[in-house]
Structures are given as C-alpha cells and as structure tokens.
Amino acid sequence: MFAKDTLNHPGSNTYSRGSLGLDFSIYEGGASQAMSKLQEKRALGLKFEKANIKDQEYIQSARFYRGLQSLTEFRERIINLNKTESKFQSGYQLANKNNPVGYTGYLALKSLKNRLLAMEKETDAQVFEFKESLSLLSGLETTNIKTKNIDLFEFLNLHFPKPIAQEESSYTKAMTAYAEGENLKSDLEMAKFLPKVGVYSEANAYSGSRSTQAAYNAGFYVQMNLYSPKEQGSVEEAKLQAEAYRTKLDEAREREISTFNNLKTREVTLFENYQLIKESIKNQEEQVIYMQRLFQSGAISAIQFAEVLNRSADLAKSLLDTELNYLQIRSEFHKFQNGKTYESESTN
Fold first, then answer.
1. Residue 219, strand partner residues
2. pTM for this structure?
C-alpha cells in the first residue's frame, strides 16, 4: 500500500534519434544552368571592362608621352624666334619717336616679343600638365619623366598602326557580354514556374533504454510554383530589361561605326594639313633670312619684318595643334584593333 504510483509517476528514461538524408535535384527548370552561364557572362563582361580601362590608359599615356616632345619642339621654335627678334632689335635703333616708321616697327617688335614670352610660358604650363597626367598614369615622379626623341610618324606606326578593318572595342564587347547575361535572366525567372524534380533518401537511427533500431526511406518528388504573387510579371520584366540592353548595345555599335569612319576622314585631313604646314614652316624660315636682307637694304620696314616673325609664330602654333590632334586621332584607332598588345615601355 506504500508503493509508488508508477502509472501516474513513471520513471525517467532517455531516447535518442539520429538522421542522415540526401536530396538530389534532377531538374530545376534550367535555373542552375542559367545561373552558371549568367555568372560566366558577368565575369566575361568584367574582363572586357578591365581591358577597356587598360586601352584608355594606354592611349592617354601615349598622348602625353609623345605630346611632351611636340611641346618641347614648339618651345624651341618660339625661343629661336625670340632670339631672332632680340638680335634684330639690338642691331638697329628703332625706339626713336622722331622716326615714326622706325618707331612703329619698334612697337610691333615689342608686341611680338611679349607674345612670344606669353606663348613660352603657356607651353611650360602645358608641359607641367602633361607630366603630371603622365605621372598619375605611370606612377613615376615628374622629375623622372623624360622622353626619347622619335619622329611622330615613326612613333605612331610603331605603337598605333592604322587598322585595316574595324573591330569591336573592349567596351562594346563588355556590353555584349552583359546583354547576353540579361537574356539569361529571363530564363532564370522562367525556371521559377517550371516543375522541379528530385530524389531523396533518409536513414534514421532510434536508440532507447531497451534497444536500437534503424529505419530507411527513399523516393522522388515533383514541385511546381503554381501561383506566387511576388513573382508575377518577373519574366516579362526580365525580357524588357534584356531588350533595353540590346538596344543600348546596338546604339553603341552604331556610334562606334560612326566614330571609326570619322576618325578615318579626320586622319586623312590632318595628315595632309601636317604636310602643308611643315612645308610652309620651311618656306617661312627661308623667308625670314631674305626679309632681314631686304630690311638691311631698305626695301622693307621693321613692321613688315615683325609681321613675318608673327607669321612664323602662327605656323609653329598650327604645327603643334596639328601634331597633338593627329596624335589623338591615330591613338583612338587603338580601341578598334584586334589582338592588341601592350609593350612595357619605360618613360626614361
């Protein structure tokens, strides 16, 4: 009569269960394949983006590097003109106001000298700007940047040969990869509405105070997203985004075709202008020599000689502008070349 109520107060026992399962998807509506291809397209797009940045930096570095030589040559021409003007003035007394003709020539030469000094200072500022930009691109100190004298066309033919035919730029290739990735997004969204098929298996082990037993089960399953308010319109949205990317890609390709054709036209024009200016400079240098002789014989006035020197300064500036523009045009062709190579150059 004093025994425990074992029915209402049972003893304490411990039971345990362990499970090990395997779930293998056979078909997921193509989601895995679409995601894998999408990641590949994104990686490819990033690769071409990197190449595009490299193209731009290569082009800019070449412009600044060869542009420094053009600026240096222009500065030397201006200095030589300044020396010619100073030598001319030192040999003649023109500052006498009682001689209106001579004094007018003196004022013209003085204005010319001021102009040449201003052009020299402006060139020094451009040289500083070019070196700073090149230093930023190359990582070199501006004091360590020195150019090697090389003919403009030799430099361009070596590093920026004119392409035979237009190739897609790295930028367009990147956009193509991204556009193809956007097409895969619609497949990825469509996969959410397709059936998913898989197989599974599970093993369970049960352990108690009396014994241990095991149980096994296996089977296959089919899942399908019949209705989901959150996913409504996602496929159509993905298709519209893909269409927008394709439109942007088509526009980029058309712009590149137009740019390439414009580059070819401008390259021919600038080349012809360059040859004409070079010939004019040669003629102008010869004319300066003869104008000095004419002044000595009294055939011309000092103001006429000053005009000749001004014309020489104008031609020197035109040559500089043409060289820099031609360098820019030829370097832009680099974006449309296939199998581009980057030579490791040292700006020393």
1. 200
2. 0.76
